[in-house]
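Thread: "does anyone have the structure for this chain?"

Original post by V.I.:
We have the sequence but no experimental structure in hand. Need at least a predicted one for the grant figures.
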Amino acid sequence: MFLEQNLGTILIVTGFTIKSFMRGETDGPIGAVALGQTIKLMGGEPIYISDGHNCDILKTLTNNEDTIVDFPVTDHHNSESFAQKLLEDLTPSLLVSIERVGFNKNRSYFNRFGESIDSISAKTDYLFMHHQSTIGIGDGGNEIGMGLVPLTFLEEMLPINPSITPTNALIIAGTSNWGSYGLITALSVRQGMNLLPSSDQENQWLRQIVETNGAVDSFTSGSTQTVDGYKPQELNFILNKLHNIVNDSLSSNSEI
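Reply from O.Q.:
Generated one for you, C-alpha cells below.
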C-alpha cells in the first residue's frame, strides 16, 4: 500500500476554518490524529500541519505530545517559500491531506457556501505541489486531492469552483474522518492488527474539541458534538462497522 511504502516522517495536513465562527471544523482533525496514532504504531513519525484555531484543536487532541506546525496565512510567494523550506527541513516521506481546502483554478479558496476564505486559510497546497508522494482525503470537492477528479464532473456537482490540487492517491468519503478511518481499516487488515480508534475514543475526541476549542460543525451551524450533521451514535455506527471488517479479517487469517 502507498502509505506503507512511504513510512517515515509523514506530514498530515488538516483543519478547515468555518468563516462565520472563526473556529475550526469538527471534521478533519479527528481523522488526522487517528491516522497519526496509526503511523506511530507502524513505526513512522507523524507531524501535523495546520493554521490558526485548527492548531489549537490539534494540540487538544494530541495532548501537546506531537509536533504541530502552524503554517502562516500569507501571500502566495511567501507561502510557497515557507512550504519549500519546511519540506527541506523535515524531509517527509509522504504528505496526507485530510479535509483541507484546496486551490480552485484561480488559486483561491472557497467554502461550500461559495464564500471566499482566502484571508483565513493558509496556502498549504504548495506543500503538495512540491512533493512526489501525496494522499488526499475529502468529502465535498473543494479539498486538496480533488484535482484527481475531472474538473467538468466536479463543476457539475458544486456551485463553486472545486479544488484543482491533485494528489497521487485520493479517498472520497461521506465525511473526511470516515475517509481516514477507511485508510486505517485497510492498513489494519494488511498489518494484521486492529489500528482503529474505539468509539469511546472518538466520542472523547469530539467532546474535547467542542468543549475546549469551540470546534464547529458547518452543517449544524454551531459548536455541537456532531460531524457534518452526524450525531455521535451515527458516527460510532460507521466506525464499529469498520471494526467488524478488521476483526472478521483477523479472525479469518487466524483460522488459516
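V.I.: this helps a lot. The mean pLDDT is 94.
O.Q.: and The radius of gyration is 17 Å.
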